[in-house]
Amino acid sequence: MSRKVRLGIVGFGNQGSQYARLIEEGRVPNVELAAITDTDSARREQIAEKYPDVARFEDYVAMLESGAVEAVVTTVPHYLHPQMGIQALERGIHVLVEKPAGVYTKQVRELNEFAASKPGLTFAIMFNQRTNPLYRRLKEIVDSGEIGAIRRTNWIITTWYRPQAYYDSSAWRATWGGEGGGVLVNQAPHQLDLWQWICGVPQRVFAKAGYGFRRNIAVEDEVVAVVDYGDGATGTFTTATHELVGTDRFEITGDRGKIVVTDSKTAVVTRFRAPEQEINAGIPPEDVWRMTSDQFNPDDYYTQETLEFDTAWGGQHAAVLENFAANILDGTPLIASGSDGILGVRLANAIHLSSWTGKEVPIDFDEDEFLAELNKKIAEEGKFPQRG
């Protein structure tokens, strides 16, 4: 039998329990569930009942030092990911952090720098949407230049409906000091990652956000952000948790084509027969009327392809776990290096900072300014200690 990675799961909530089940069902063939840590005694009783042969711990560091595990996945509140990642790495334990990598870039940068000092250890992040065959194909199309240089991007992702009962389910949820934000740090990190992974990192951000707009919470439940990529290219990102009937529509417009994705399932890829500026220059005045009449023939100007892929529920998470273990075992390249986690956190921070100050901010904003503003929010909230 081939060797399996002995994995420890930190936190037996929604995500941690899902990962345990995927492993026990054999959907991650190169991983052995070796230990689970949770500070809640009731959850440890659940672990004992469901997984009697798996080691249980109340204390995370005790698990790291027990010799029971060689790798961990952290499924805990966002602020703890960098701290726990460093604690594992300094003990020679491989780390897969859940998204987001942290709440603010200064803490994530510390994790990245420490991980870089341990090149023999695997450091990854659970960006499971990067395994989605639809988005992988779209990245190939954009990277290959098939739709040319990007001119505009738009993503409306408002399918995160959450009632007030959801926010009231935990004292840390939807708080500045406990969770670090709302929809940007909880629901939308995968889209923030995919947006940049496929379209590139913007240079500047301007944003408006609603804090407790339609829910009794302190953090954001609606966001509209406008980004500037440079060279005239722009993008918008709209997200919310209060739309009963939400929308998931992602558009990428290039100078040689366009991609439109609906419901993260179907994409229509349009490829122009020539760059748009050449098409524009080649249309004589006498043919302009054809563009708005029934004599318009789209085949003269472009082709279209529809892409659709099916993925099994839980399969994407299992794929990241399997890839993480494969990197440990034989050096298989990671789907998402842990160091990539700072990109989504940085964009979320820039969106927050812009909305707080009412100004456009560069993507390489002042990290101390952001942390100071975040700590003001935490102090006003009065529930948790300030960060730093």
TrEMBL record:
Matches recorded under SUPFAM superfamilies: Glyceraldehyde-3-phosphate dehydrogenase-like, C-terminal domain, NAD(P)-binding Rossmann-fold domains
Taxonomically, the superkingdom here is Bacteria
Domain Gfo/Idh/MocA-like oxidoreductase N-terminal residues, every copy: 6-118
Please verify whether the record's keywords include NAD.
Answer: yes
Q: Which UniProt keywords apply?
A: NAD
Q: Where is the GFO/IDH/MocA-like oxidoreductase domain?
A: 135-259
Q: Which InterPro entries match?
A: Gfo/Idh/MocA-like_OxRdtase_N, Gfo/Idh/MocA_Oxidoreductase, GFO_IDH_MocA-like_dom, NAD(P)-bd_dom_sf
Q: Which Pfam families match?
A: GFO_IDH_MocA, GFO_IDH_MocA_C3
Q: What is this protein called?
A: Gfo/Idh/MocA family oxidoreductase
Origin organism is Sinomonas terricola
